[in-house]
Amino acid sequence: MLTWVIYDIGSNKARGRVAKICKEYGLQRVQKSVFLGTLSNNDTDELGLRCKELIDLDVDSLYIFPMCGDDFRKVRLLGMAFDKALVTDEIKALFL
Fold first, then answer.
1. C-alpha torsion sign, points 49, 64, 90, 18
2. What's the predicted TM-score (pTM) here?
3. Into how many domains does the chain fold?
């Protein structure tokens, strides 16, 4: 299922590790703290558990949003929707 991972993490070290984990699961960076890709339910759970160990639960936030294809097609983008330098052609195609 298409999955968004969005975070606000204060520690540079933790933020970098979370980004690395997202990439390990095949997610593509859409913006600096936003990743998008296809994950199984198990991978979504594992990613959440791994990231939970890295962040400060009292001050940081990490959102994991699964989204079905029908709902994704309803997304409306305004302005510069994503950082084109960070996004692969695969992700760009999803926005067309």
1. negative
2. 0.81
3. 1
